[in-house]
């Protein structure tokens, strides 16, 4: 299972999830719990797309490292919730091992 930090922001009935290390990966939910569940699903899809297309996954940074970014620190100070989200690793699109040519 891969883990990435996410930010949940919004208000009751409309919460948005973003992943600082995974540009373009977003999720939504009516409650914080629903947004968290959807975040895991969307992160899994996002990573699966990267794997299937041979795109290298971004390195997951720690919460402490991310909080050194002033924009993220401001978002948390304004009420965003910083959580860690786990994603299922799908093996259906594994990148094949390189073939070693023997002479």
Short description:
With 103 residues, this protein is of the alpha+beta class. The protein has helices spanning 32-52, 63-67, 70-77; strands spanning 2-11, 14-18, 26-29, 81-87. A 4-stranded antiparallel sheet has the order 3-2-1-4, covered by helices on one side.
What can you see in these coordinates?
It contains 3 helices and 4 strands. The protein is an alpha+beta fold. It has a 4-stranded antiparallel sheet with strand order 3-2-1-4, covered by helices on one side. β1 and β2 form a beta hairpin. The longest helix is centred in the middle third of the chain and has 21 residues. It is globular, with a radius of gyration of 16 Å. The termini are far apart. The model has no long low-confidence stretch (mean pLDDT 88).
How are the SSEs ordered, and which strands pair?
Layout: E1 2-11, E2 14-18, E3 26-29, H1 32-52, H2 63-67, H3 70-77, E4 81-87
Antiparallel strand pairs: 1-2, 1-4, 2-3
Spell out the key features of this protein:
103 residues; alpha+beta; four-stranded antiparallel β-sheet; 4 strands; 33% helix
């Amino acid at each position: 299972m891969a883990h990435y930090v996410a930010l949940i922001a919004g208000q009751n009935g409309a919460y948005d999830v973003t992943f600082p290390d995974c540009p373009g990966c977003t999720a939504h939910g009516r409650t914080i719990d629903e947004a968290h569940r959807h975040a895991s699903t969307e992160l899994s899809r996002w990573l699966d797309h990267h794997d299937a297309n041979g795109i290298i996954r971004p390195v997951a940074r720690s919460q402490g490292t991310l909080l050194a970014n002033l924009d993220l620190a401001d978002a948390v100070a304004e009420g965003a919730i910083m959580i860690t989200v786990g994603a299922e690793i799908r093996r259906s699109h594994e990148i094949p091992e390189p073939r070693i040519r023997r002479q």
